[in-house]
Amino acid sequence: MMAPKNTIQQQLQIVAQCSLFCDLAPADLTAVLQTATHRHYTSGSFIFNQEDKANTFYVLLAGSVRMTQITPEGHQIIVHFFTPGHGVGIIAALGNFNYPLTAEAVEDCDLLVWNRELMNHLMEKYPKLAINAAKMLAVRFNELQDRYRELATERVERRVARTLLRLTKQAGKKMKDGILIDMPLSRRDLAEMTGTTIYSVSRIISKWEQDGLVKTRREQMTICSPHGLVTIAEDLPPVKPAN
Amino acid sequence: MMAPKNTIQQQLQIVAQCSLFCDLAPADLTAVLQTATHRHYTSGSFIFNQEDKANTFYVLLAGSVRMTQITPEGHQIIVHFFTPGHGVGIIAALGNFNYPLTAEAVEDCDLLVWNRELMNHLMEKYPKLAINAAKMLAVRFNELQDRYRELATERVERRVARTLLRLTKQAGKKMKDGILIDMPLSRRDLAEMTGTTIYSVSRIISKWEQDGLVKTRREQMTICSPHGLVTIAEDLPPVKPAN
DNA sequence: CGCGTTCTTGACTAGAATCAATGCATGTGG
DNA sequence: CCACATGCATTGATTCTAGTCAAGAACGCG
Prior knowledge:
The structure is a homodimer.
Chain A: H1 8-17, H2 26-34, E1 37-41, E2 46-48, E3 56-62, E4 65-70, E5 76-82, E6 87-88, H3 90-95, E7 102-105, E8 109-115, H4 116-125, H5 127-153, H6 156-171, E9 172-175, E10 178-181, H7 187-194, H8 198-210, E11 214-217, E12 220-223, H9 226-233
Antiparallel strand pairs in A: 1-8, 2-7, 3-6, 3-8, 4-5, 4-7, 9-10, 10-12, 11-12
The structure holds a DNA duplex.
């Protein structure tokens, strides 16, 4: 519907860097890309829903995507935020089951789209593609495992600190008063990312704001002292000289 | 060193069913298997250690393997138990980083072994292999994600119930007085699998034992009423008629 | 300007961790 | 075969983190 944010040129660059396509012979890469179609999602729209049949395979070119999962009891958790260059829905499409989670565009998004079977054929034809997919999955698996360990062994405050630090890496934008997390980010989001409640998050953030570590507005967050957050995330003693 | 528990014949059967090798042309399968070597680990020995360089790739033929991870603070968590037919160390070997966890033989084990680079070549030659690896990873990823969600949203008792139910599926052996979990399983193991402490586990198990749901000995566990555990795991009301 | 969100804060509670003491098995060596 | 050491398991008392509930403030939007 709308024109994509970036030019085709720029998008190709993003794709070529994307770990799914790296190391692919240039000719093969263009062949693979020619089989893709292109879709735009406006902010707030859903790319797919939990329990949908997974027969599509996406690569995010522009925008950001929030992956959530909702339990039978109605608890929602946020599993991942995707930024450009990452594959979306790959796991479900590989495994040929239903999407275990919902993908929502939190900003306007451009995505490359493949049909599941088509991608399977491509992988048989270009083994590198399958190997890359597996590697990408391996990396994501490790990230998830780390977060699992954190959840199992760490306090809420540390988990929130870690999550914010991760977000600065993913979507941080340097401003004069600190690093802005450049996407809408509510207390609820943070709570659902760290496995806690909005109340606990609010208390923690309030305290940090008093200590000058962060500045917040509604659904927005600036990290003034990344180092201070690291101190909390790593459970180092605060800046007192005495130990 | 020692003769394997099963005959080569039996092992081939296991391997052929293993999701890593299924759908492979029989000729290709034998070709792939011929490149593997074979190793035996005695109970209690370590297959690899956290932080080792990951250049080996295993498939478990017999025995069981416990995967643990230890945090800088010294908290240990159990990430997975492997039973025959599963790939061990695959993720790290794919991603070409260090093993993020330790693999320990909890019983005598037989494994097939490949060198990392060799497996990479094999995958380029037999794309099906790479696709299967990716699919296998996708399945494990989903399992991990489920457990992550449980950890984030559920109480300890439910998590312990779920874990025991999973173990009955993985290593359950039908006995006359219930389903025996056929591997050494201490309170500590359960605590590290569910993200809690041995004290909480002990209290919960004691209560269940009083209610006749389970029977325990040292490092051993029999589930007398799987249904009762399901009731707890799903948070259904107990067997009272009134709601 | 009124409405719906989002966010904050306080009071209270409960689930689970921690600490400490003790009881049991199991295996060891005199 | 018994005394002992060791590791595993239980239980009670206590503490504390974080969840729950409730009320209201601040913000943004139509």
